Amino acid sequence: MKNGKNIAAKCTHNGLTAAKGQACKGKTRAGSKLPEFDVAAFLNHRDLAPVYVTKLGALFDGDALAILPSIAAECVDTVFADPPFNIGKKYGLAVNDRRAEHDYLRWCYSWIDQSIRILKNGGSLFSYNLPKWNIILANFLLERGMSFRDWIVVDIKLGLPIPGRLYPSHYSLLYFSKGKAKTFHNIRTRIQKCRHCDGDIRDYGGHRKALNPNGINLTDVWHDISPVRHWKFKSKKRKANALSTKLLDRVVEMSTDEGDLILDPFAGSGTTLAVCETKKRRWIGIEIESSQVIVERLEGKQLFHYRNEDFVEQADLVKSRAR
Question: In the CATH scheme, what is the homologous superfamily, with its name and number, of domain 12-322?
Answer without folding.
Answer: Vaccinia Virus protein VP39 (3.40.50.150)
